[in-house]
Design goal:
Blueprint: E1 7-12, E2 24-31, H1 34-42, E3 50-52, E4 59-60, E5 64-72, E6 77-82, E7 86-92, H2 97-106, H3 125-128, E8 131-132, E9 135-136, E10 141-148, E11 153-158, H4 170-173, E12 178-188, H5 199-211, H6 219-233, E13 251-253, H7 254-263, E14 269-271, E15 276-279, H8 281-287, E16 294-295, E17 298-300, E18 308-310, H9 322-340, E19 349-351, E20 357-358
Parallel strand pairs: 2-5, 3-5, 4-19
Antiparallel strand pairs: 1-2, 6-7, 7-12, 8-9, 10-11, 10-12, 13-15, 14-15, 16-17, 17-18, 19-20
Helix pairs in contact: 5-6
Length: 364
Amino acid sequence: MTASFPSQTSADLSALNTMALACQAEQVITLSDEAQLEQILQDKAQHEPLFVLSGGSNVLLPPKLQATVLRPLLKGVTVVSDSDESIHIEVMAGEDWHQLVLHTVTSGWYGLENLALIPGLTGAAPVQNIGAYGVQLDDCVTHVRACHLPTQTWHDFDKAACQFGYRDSIFKQQAGEWLITRVGFALHKDPSRVQAGYGDVQAQALQLANDASRQHITPVDVMQAIIAIRQSKLPDPKVLPNCGSFFKNPVIPTEQFQSLQAQFPQVVGYRVDECYTKVAAGWLIDHAGLKGGGIAPILSHEQQALVLINHSANLGATKASQQDVAATQHYIQQQILATYGIMLEREPVWIDSDGQINLSNTTL
């Protein structure tokens, strides 16, 4: 390997994950183009195992990571095709996600506005199939380019090949095997097409439209409303370390939801189809009396129960570890199971010490 690669040995990753967990890695290599990756993989034997770390916003790192960390920070947004009705763009993996949303919406390219203020980089977005306020990434994705690390081969995925599901994809199913370098999007240019089915989003977007003397809300209104809502509810990771929504909204049989609703009339749920209903995990945690609760230094956020906060710095304690998070996760899961008969699933990705992703929902 040439010396031109930005590399750091025995690296502290506590500042590179938004949960600020203590983690020491053997080596970190920053990638700025695809050619660098090809050269690194040619020298693969000296750098096994490999672990891909993007923006660090959805991972729970171990105290010691016995792997070479690859950080894909490739930059660029390219217009693939453009018409009066739509535009297709290709975005490099290292572009900041929220800045991408701002750029597209202010350019009159719509479809990503509901996903504003989600932390992280674009390359990580397909792995979790990020979503918020009724929209998922796969609503707009056209293709993904990724390198399969075990075979050192490049693959171009169309949308179907990505196998997207709720917070899921082939990249998550085959965890640790893929490094995404490019993501393609199809966006529209119709300002009358909006997704504002959530009451608080619609109310704030309507207020913004009214303030501008307009009768109808626009994608810009929706984006600004969602930014305001998220800022009012979700803590800034730079101030209070967290990895965003910690638990998935459970999807349960509608019959089970109706039984739950009979016992808890105010429970919040959203119909998925004729058979299933998605339940608001934040409501379950909040109304179980767990908002602000947990096992120190990892506690549920006092304003948004779905977010777990690392309070170790505020408590003057040593840096929190992965096991501290696991303790609070398990505590909340057991309380919700006992109260509502629902087992919550963790959303952030748990990383084992060898850099492998552990899909277990307990990890205790």
